[in-house]
Specification:
The protein is an alpha+beta fold and 582 residues long. It is built from 22 helices and 16 strands. A hairpin with a 2-residue loop joins strand 7 and strand 8.
């Protein structure tokens, strides 16, 4: 699974922002919904998550939507063209989109409501039977908006417990290694990060010996996704139960909040591990210059031994053919790990909503479309690419028994979910073209992939189906050395190595522009110092000490104050959602 592009939620500051939304507000709200004659309707979707733009006029998802609602989706994607400028320009015109999929953080939702850019869906809510199952999530949006009404529906909602791991069978960030090479060197113990460096060095040496190639490195890194910190190092912090929130790291249990600059803190420990790997000669020298695409190709080509995430190594190496031979990435038995896991989110992810624009006609029809996205059929249809749910049964992706239970992937479904689906053809009757051409370009995951389909009684995610349990040589060997676990999450739970953060819906509030400006400088210094530290021979501590001084002199105290309060609010939100679920 590719990591989705980060959603940008920063608006123009100061007078420009105030002017923008005052102009939009002048446009008013067109709440009068004329009688819908059912004719074909082209719907403009402003979609901050989409990675492709334009009219989705062909393919299987387009056919689903056309047949059910007689609408076509024309996607406006800031990720593809224009970034925040597209949001600013369209907002200033008073018409952001007919359907709006966007982030709610940094005060954006309140501004959308105040400027009357989105519709209160209350008149249609009583008929939105699928969305109403997640009523608390809808109410959480209203609370965030600061005004009563049905202003939008969050993505990633769930009917499961917020204290259960939401990932299903594998966590997002955890240490994954080339298990076949680990087997060749005799399954050595990995007690801590220091011993992990030694094991990875052995694996690199063995892989080079096996292949005769000296361009194999245990670790390959990249800079593309750096934000408040060096992203690759921040992901390693997840292995030990911490996740970054701005410039601080918050433990899953809420008992510890550490700034990234903390001496000896979890972020420094991650950097120290990478520095020791660098000194051991097991870090790809291209790491400081290559991008994600180059790095992930090396994983596919067998050039790396470590995958920081489950969704990096496994999809690119663990083909059916390789797994049958015992080849592929599997979770490493790192003894002192305490892997971070997000609990299910009854109120959604707290970051993104789908809403109806204020100027569009036939709002009731669009409300029906949104409601459908939260139905089992809509979940399979619209999130099969973005969220890992199985593709639709009506597309021939899976079958069930006579009672509608025991979902089982068809050959088509297996190829759609795990194989080369770029060349997987769909019949003309079902929309034609290839599977890839046809999937939903909205990139919107309405309901958690690991939530339960009430029809089948099993998850939407086919990897969790009873009919789809891994019986390959690779899995059998891994399980035999990992407490006979049925999957990664099962092992981590059995071994007491999972830290679950209750699934709270929380977004950071809008911050003062001066704090944002300081934050930008702090980010830059933190990231630059991090890369310098991991490549510094004998100057690791000195590099970080100098960076701390520079960051403090930039005025970090004010940024830290904001981030510590945000962390406190996040921790409280987690406590509240647990109480709410009881």
């Amino acid at each position: 699974m590719e990591l989705k592009k980060k959603l940008t939620t920063v608006l123009a500051a100061g007078v420009a922002a105030a002017t923008l939304f005052s102009v939009a507000a002048c446009g008013g709200s067109n709440d009068a919904d004329t009688k819908d004659d059912g004719s074909e309707m082209t719907v403009e979707v402003f979609d901050s998550l989409a990675n492709s733009q334009g009219l989705q006029k062909s393919g299987w998802f387009a056919k689903f939507v056309k047949d059910k609602f007689n609408i076509k989706l024309n996607i406006i994607a800031p990720n593809v063209s224009g970034g925040d400028t597209v949001f600013d320009t369209r907002s200033a015109s008073g018409n952001l989109g007919d359907i709006v999929i966007t982030g709610t953080g940094n005060g954006r939702l309140q501004k959308l409501v105040k400027a009357k850019l989105i519709t209160d869906m209350t008149p249609y809510y009583s008929s939105m039977k699928n969305v109403k199952k997640y009523d608390s999530a809808v109410k959480s949006v209203a609370k965030q908006a600061g005004k009563d009404g049905v202003w939008g529906v969050p993505q990633g909602v769930s009917s499961q417990s917020p204290t259960d791991p939401s990932e299903g069978n594998e966590p997002g960030s955890a240490p994954y290694i080339r298990w076949d090479i680990y087997k060749e060197i005799g399954y050595p113990e990995i007690k801590d990060l220091d011993s992990f460096v030694d094991v990875l060095k052995q694996m690199q040496d063995r892989a080079r010996q096996d292949t005769g190639k000296d361009d194999i490195y245990a670790i390959s890194l990249f800079k593309d996704w750096d934000g408040d910190e060096m992203q690759n190092a921040a992901a390693i912090c997840n292995w030990f139960g911490y996740k970054n929130q701005g410039s601080v790291f918050v433990s899953a249990d809420g008992k510890d909040v550490q700034p990234a600059t903390q001496k000896g803190g979890i972020y420094e420990q991650a950097l120290d591990f990478l520095n020791k790997c660098e000194q051991a000669g097991i870090v790809d020298p291209d790491s400081t210059t290559q991008d994600w695409d180059t790095m992930q190709t090396k994983v596919t080509d067998g050039k790396t031994m470590l995958s920081i995430w489950s969704w990096l190594g496994k999809p690119r190496m663990n083909s059916d053919e390789n797994k049958a031979k015992g080849v592929g990435f599997m979770l490493a038995p790192l003894e002192n790990t305490k892997v971070y896991s997000d609990g299910f989110q009854p109120d959604g992810d707290g970051a993104t909503i789908v809403a109806i624009g204020s100027k569009v006609k036939n709002k009731a029809r669009l409300a029906k479309f949104i409601d459908w996205m939260y139905s089992p059929e809509g979940i399979y249809a619209s999130s099969s690419n973005s969220g890992g749910a199985a593709c639709p049964k009506d597309l021939g992706c899976f079958t069930t028994d006579k009672d509608g239970k025991n979902p089982t992937l068809t050959k088509f479904g297996q190829q759609a979910m795990t194989g080369d689906h770029a060349n997987l053809e769909v019949s003309a009757k079902l929309g034609g073209s290839s599977y890839d051409d046809g999937y939903s370009k909205l990139n919107f995951k309405a309901v958690s992939q690991n939530d339960i389909d009430p029809n089948t009684g099993e998850a939407y995610n086919p990897l969790l189906w009873k009919s789809n349990q891994d019986e390959t040589e690779l899995f059998k060997d891994w399980s035999a050395h990992m407490e006979n676990a049925t999957n990664d999450i099962d092992y981590l739970q059995k071994a007491g190595k999972l830290s679950i953060a209750a699934g709270a819906s929380y977004t950071t509030p809008q911050e003062d522009s001066t704090v944002s400006a300081t934050r930008s400088s702090v980010k830059s210094e933190t990231v630059n110092a991090s890369w310098q530290a991991i490549t510094a021979a004998g100057k690791f501590e000195k590099t970080l000490d100098e960076a701390r001084t520079k960051i403090d002199n930039l005025g970090y105290k004010e940024v830290l104050k904001v981030d510590q309060q945000n962390a406190k609010d996040l921790i409280q939100a987690r406590k509240d959602i647990v109480k709410q679920a009881k």
